[in-house]
Amino acid sequence: MEEGLSVIDFFAGAGGLSLGAYRACFNVIGAVELDERAMDTHIRNFPKTKHFKVDLASILPEELLRQTGKKEGELTGIVGGPPCQGFSYMGHGNEHDERNSLFIRFFDFIVTFKPAFFVVENVLGILSSKYDGIRTKAFTKINKEYEILDPIKIRANEYGAPTTRTRVFFIGYNKEQINGLSVNDFEKAKIPINEQISVKDALAGLPKDISQMSNGLGKITKKDISTVGKHKKSFYERIFDMIPADVGNKEYIERYKKNNIVSGCLPTKHGEEVEKRNVALTYGQQDIVSKSVRLDPDGFCPTLRAGTGPDKGSYQAVRPIHYELPRVITPREAARLQGFPDWFDFQPTIWHSFRQIGNSVSPIVAEKVLSVIYHKLT
Known about the structure:
With 378 residues, the chain is an alpha/beta fold. It has 13 helices and 10 strands. It folds into 2 domains: 6-192 and 362-377, Vaccinia Virus protein VP39 (Rossmann fold, 3-Layer(aba) Sandwich); 199-359, DNA Methylase, Chain A, domain 2. The strands form 2 sheets. Strands 1, 2, 3, 4, 5, 6, 7 and 8 form an 8-stranded mixed sheet that branches. The chain starts with 5 loop residues before the first strand and ends with a helix.
């Protein structure tokens, strides 16, 4: 990794974009996050990154730049996923949601930091015509200095993650520092259909009988990646290994490496009637009561939802049902389906873990996107 190729992750959450950036050979020198639990997860997995628990609506861009220790133009990239709730089709799609202003605010920091490139991720709903004004106001701040690509819709399974999670990426670059970056570059990063990872492949080796795992720890059986096809080998390498220097919780990783112990195998207790309904579901069918969908082992996981934060009542999001067992998936299974490695250390509770996983960018997708930019830089 080159020290000079540095990025800051805004609205960093658990760190899906951060891990993708590290694996794409960038150095994540800073992470900005206001949520205390998400910050805790990011710190334990990125202990060498400088963390800023600040409200971007309140801090001046010049002050944050000073705190990073960087000067104008020294940063290679800014990445981030501003709050999407106000834009989401799953929500109310409220153009007056106060969180929507943070999308515009993100671009104030680009103006001040002057990075070589930026990557902004959000839900497809932000492309709705009723948000034209928000996007225009944001892009107008920087369109004299940056070439802004047309919005890129990325479906995660087409880039190597086992989920259909589809998001839009806004990517811009300084025309004097990067030459010839195009939407087609990202299209070419897609993997062939026959190399995409199914739910069954993604969950291979994770413990299934978790009913008595009160501490959430389970022992995995590592699939012998030397005997699988090339595309599966690539996925398992990212699940089992590929730990960037200075990344990860050393104590947790040591236990994982020595004993194949993972966290997040927390059981959710279902009543007998619920289990009967779950068993009766066909693959892809939704339970009429819980609204949970039974996973198809040969298909992809639908978009994992985050649930609500404390300000909205702390409601747990609906979770998919395991394709083989009459229960909803565990946090560790959700992490696999989102493309997070087994050595990534999440929160010790189901709610916080699922909320952070559901809010995150798949590290596999992030790595693909940022690798395209890295090669244009180098």
